[in-house]
Amino acid sequence: MMTESTESTESTESTESTESTESTPALALPALEEVSTVACVGAGTIGGGWAAYFLARGFTVRVWDPAPDAAERLGRLIDAAWPALRQLDMVAGASRDAWSVHADLAEAVDGAGFVQESAPEDLAMKRRLLADVDAVTAPDVVVGSSTSGYGMTEMAAEVSRPERFVVGHPFNPPYLIPLVEVVGGESTAAEAVDWAAAFYTRLGKSVIRMDQEVPGFIANRLQEALWREALHMVDNGEATVEQIDRSITEGPGLRWPMQGPMLTFHLAGGEGGMAHMLDHFGPSLQSPWTRLDAPELTPRLRDAVVAGSDRAADGRGVAELIAERDAGIIAIRRLSESGRAGAGSGADSGAEAAQ
Ligand SMILES: NC(=O)c1ccc[n+]([C@@H]2O[C@H](COP(=O)([O-])OP(=O)(O)OC[C@H]3O[C@@H](n4cnc5c(N)ncnc54)[C@H](O)[C@@H]3O)[C@@H](O)[C@H]2O)c1
């Protein structure tokens, strides 16, 4: 195993780096192929999923998570993820045991060539934590955050080397969903964003590299619109949790693995394509079909959504639902990848093909 080249990264001009971010920050980023160890800071649903994925891609994974049961939870998560990763032929040569949980953050990031932060979605906590990570991580190691919607500009407010901090937003479960949205903050060096995008791509992820910070990035903005409307419908007694889920899984959701919402609507226009679609249905845009402002999450609404979800689970526990979901995602990925390959498209499938 190669070691990280941290000794060559101490820049003699490091004190200038925080204000020289627009053009050429003093970053000596490691070569991608030299990175053999990754640190996961926070190892819940997402951090643990990342850990499983990094392990499958052959990395040694060092973890820091303050929860007393973090190691047990992570062990269970890796146990659940590994069979799914194996089915996708992604674990060849990898060791599922190459992980360790450390009592100390500095110890966990020691020797890591990349850090993935996945602590709870709390801005004050992220700010403090990223400052702590910054203080103990080798200066030219890129740090990615799994945040669902904060910008790196606001999260990196207290770090001294913001140029190496990027958002690397995954989707649950990170070991199966290919997409990662990558975007920097105002003080992130473009080369760090490029490095992170290349790193995730090298791992087999499908990366969208965004040029500007947008709250919620791309996919979560879209998901949030659907989620808000769904909550309004439950709140108003217009639809049940079960009806909402089925309206997607038995309806538009079936099209989305193959074609996204835009190409889907291109076909909704028939031979006239998107142009006809817009001309035909444009006036409907003015109809009051959606509300978009978030509903107030009253106890009544919360209880209704929780009770509906319990009914939808129909006695199946979380582990059983995860296994069902993973089997379904694997089947859909195989079908949609072969479908795209068969259609000769592949415009956005380069990273996945590498797997
Ligand atoms: N759950 C999702 O679907 C999803 C999807 C994409 C991104 N995210 C983002 O990933 C991040 C983690 O979310 P999650 O769903 O895994 O949450 P989670 O609650 O499952 O896990 C959070 C973990 O962080 C640990 N933790 C608590 N305080 C910490 C600290 N100070 N430093 C480090 N770790 C700490 C907890 O012990 C826990 O293990 C959030 O930023 C979230 O927005 C979540």
Automatic annotation (TrEMBL):
Pathway given in the UniProt record: Lipid metabolism; butanoate metabolism
* Keywords noted in UniProt: Oxidoreductase
Residues in domain 3-hydroxyacyl-CoA dehydrogenase C-terminal? 216-284
Residue numbers spanned by region Disordered: 1-25
Q: Spell out the Low complexity composition-biased ranges.
A: 1-24
Instruction: Supply the Gene3D superfamilies for this chain.
Output: N-(1-d-carboxylethyl)-l-norvaline Dehydrogenase, domain 2, NAD(P)-binding Rossmann-like Domain
Q: Where is the 3-hydroxyacyl-CoA dehydrogenase NAD binding domain?
A: 37-212
Member of which family? Belongs to the 3-hydroxyacyl-CoA dehydrogenase family.
UniProt name for this protein: 3-hydroxyacyl-CoA dehydrogenase NAD-binding domain-containing protein
Species source reads: Nesterenkonia halobia
